[in-house]
Amino acid sequence: MALVDRLILREILVPLAVGILAIVQLLVILQLLQLNQIVFGSAVTLGDLGRLTVALAPHFLVVALPLAFMLGVQLGIGRLSSDRELLAMSAAGVPPLRFYRVPIAISLALGVAVAALVHWAEPWGFQELNRVLNQVIKRNLQSGLTPGLFNDGLPRFMIYVGGQEHGGSGLWKGVLIEDEVGDGAPLLALAEGGRVEDTGGDALMLHLFKGEIHRSEPRGETVARFDEGTFVAGVQAASKNRFSNNEIQLSNAVLRQRVAELERRGGDDDRDQAARMRLELVRRWAIPFACFVFAILGVPLATGARGSKSSAYLITMGAFVSYYALSRVAVALTVSGWNAWAAGLIPNALILIAGLLLTLRTSVLGIGKPQ
Fold first, then answer.
1. Residue 212: pLDDT band by 50, 70, 90 thresholds?
2. Is 0.85 surpassed by the pTM of this model?
3. pLDDT-based confidence at residue 220 (cuts at 50, 70, 90)
4. Over 50: is that where the pLDDT of 237 sits?
5. Better pLDDT: 153 or 338
6. How much is the average pLDDT of 19-27?
């Protein structure tokens, strides 16, 4: 490797590594704080927190790698520009495009890593995240029903427990359950005793003993008495677990299958959901190239920033926010009827065009000179 390449590589790698570590840590902590009602409950263990962190890491690495790379280019090449090292190398005959070689090589390596993350690690991470969250939600519900209070932790159900037997049996005494099933009047279940049982999947079973069910009807009230009865409550629909229906957790094959099924149904909601899933398939191919387009954009911006750290942070955040905003525009365009590939490639295309224009300007004016 030439001396110029080694110099640029060293300047970029250090802030790149620090940026990846700092950004991933920050994003994981922020996400755990948003899930505080689940992850900081009494039923959560250190093992659960570790599994949640590992499950969240692939998704946030997809975000962190392009962002940290852009920051590394701004700080590394910006430092060389501010110390006039780029100007000296240009005066020695090194062409401006020569300084793109290392950033582009790094971007391609990061692109391969991002491709592996979005195609395999990220779906696995969201599946694991849902498994852990659902397990924690179920344990919180099993141990978190407070006697004497109305508990609404389960979707569709309101539960009141008068008391709990001593000895750790988990048996309730004096149970009231309101079940908002269907569009009619809710079911009201009263029982002398009951308990929560784990069915093994993403559901809990509310097992009741010696009770009756009441439901108001247009012609009066329907009453049914029972010795034993059960209500099955799913935890995936709980509003606290907002990842349960995320298309990112689906593999490519499952996404294509779901798109075909939704398109066969033909409803408006089905078409919108199918469009989002098609865009997710495009995203998995488009986002690995984000590092490459940031390399084309980042080098001329870094030489113009003259090594200011504040400018490097602002440029990095501005480029990333622009990319994210364009991604949201792509979602809206896909839902409105655009081809998913045409809409999904808009962020990369516009950032690349801006980078090529700045590269052309830098080639004319020269690297290291005031622009």
1. very high
2. no
3. confident
4. no
5. 338
6. 95
Tell me the two tokens of residue 217.
Answer: 């009807």
- The Cβ-side half-sphere exposure at 264, using a 13 Å CA radius, reads 6
Residue 71, amino acid: L
Note whether 100 and 9 are within 8 A (CB). no
Average of pLDDT values for 310-339?
A: 93
At which residue do the structure tokens 């039923």 appear?
Answer: 43
Tokens describing residue 204 = 């809990």
Task: Label residue 126 exposed, middle or buried (CB < 10 Å: 0-12, 13-18, 19+).
Answer: buried
Residue 152, classified by CB atoms within 10 Å of its CB into exposed (0-12), middle (13-18) or buried (19+), is exposed
Closest CA to 300 of 365, 233, 244: 365
Query: CB of 371 within 8 A of CB of 96?
Result: no
Are 8 and 102 in contact, with CB atoms under 8 Å apart? yes
Per-residue HEC secondary structure of the chain comes to CCHHHHHHHHHHHHHHHHHHHHHHHHHHHHHHHHCHHHHCCCCCCHHHHHHHHHHHHHHHHHHHHHHHHHHHHHHHHHHHHHCCHHHHHHHCCCCHHHHHHHHHHHHHHHHHHHHHHHHHHHHHHHHHHHHHHHHHHHHHHHHCCCCCCEECCCCCEEEEEEEECCCCCCCEEEEEEEECCCCCCCEEEEEEEEEEEECCCCEEEEEEEEEEEEEEECCEEEEEEEEEEEEEEECCCCCCCCCCCCHHHCCHHHHHHHHHHHHHHCCHHHHHHHHHHHHHHHHHHHHHHHHHHHHHHHHHHHHHHCCCHHHHHHHHHHHHHHHHHHHHHHHHHHHCCCCHHHHHCHHHHHHHHHHHHHHHHHHHHCCCCCC
Which residue reads 């037997």 in tokens? Answer: 165
- Cα gap 202→134, rounded to integer Å: 6
Q: How far apart are CA 96 and CA 247, in angstroms?
A: 43
At 259, the pLDDT band (50, 70, 90 cuts) reads very high
